[in-house]
Amino acid sequence: MASSPPPPLLILAVLFAASLIPPSQSQAATCTKQSFNNNKRYTFCNDLPSLNSYLHWDFDEPQSTLSIAFIASPSNPDGWVSWALNPTSSGMAGSQALLAFKQPDGKMAVKTYNITSYAPLKDDSKVWFDVKDSSAESSAGAITLFATLVLPEKGKTVLNHVWQIHGVLNVVSWGIMFPTGIIIARYMKVFPSADPAWFYLHVSCQVSAYAIGVAGWGTGLKLGSESKSITYSVHRNIGITLFVFATLQVFALLLRPKKDHKFRIYWNVYHHGVGYSVAVLGIINVFKGLDILQPDTKWKRAYIIVIALLGGIALLLEAFTWVVVLKRKKADNSTKPYEGYNNGHSRQEPLAP
Fold first, then answer.
1. So which residues are the signal peptide here (predicted)?
2. Could you tell me the pTM of the whole model?
3. 166 is in an annotated binding site
4. What residues contact 143, with CB distance under 8 A and at least 6 apart?
5. Model confidence over 82-115: pLDDT tens digits?
């Protein structure tokens, strides 16, 4: 049962969204209600926090044998599912993967892959553990991968199991940091005392967002190149557009003219237009990615709350900014000499020719 604690000598560290999330033991999990056609039963199970996937497992400590059943739903009927152990780190590189897929004759097959880097995979490569037996079955749109693994290092207490990456980088960068940087630039510069602090905060936020976003973008391209049968054209094309626009913004920083330069007005139009485009496309693509990934609803709900908060803050600051600007204009007009008068005391007449 999933409510029992795991064996002390095997701790599965779950890699999700670039953080380690321990399996929840405090509430009944969906996996506890699942059963298998071969009547196989496992002592432990976990609902994984993404990809609508589940892991059932047993560990025989004296034999150093790990038995697993991994259940996930591919994005299309001819897709595949993969589960991996990483004995050295918590990333994709170094993962020792099992991949289950449907062959052209309709039968299911399982292959092993040693993912030493982000280079193209070699077919059915030797992995760190021995596969005692493996099989897969497809039913109701889900694929179940069965395997019994003999781990070569007895007494090893920590293993990372891997089934997703990429999304968190793009949510944080394109979906949160870029809009935040825009809010900083638009509303802080209204206050003279905030100059030039607002500028450095804005640049720091946007440059950091760009660096994180490029990492997420590159990871997405790599995942796409290794998933020939799975293509998300709209999500990919928006991602490429985001990269191009964000790169233009970086060059805009280098080409920024002085405030009194005659070309400054054109630079402002270019900079603001591209910046707002990045923010809008970034938010749209985050939702596209969430629709593809189909994580628990709490993740999508959490992002909606974050965007709603940013939007609410922007609306409040927009109203406040207009009040400040209008008051400032009114004060300027009240101190400006009236046209045709000398400080309001006498009318200025033209000199006689």
1. 1-26
2. 0.53
3. yes
4. 71, 72, 73, 74, 80, 81, 100, 101, 102, 108, 136, 137
5. 888 777 666 666 777 888 888 888 888 888 877 7
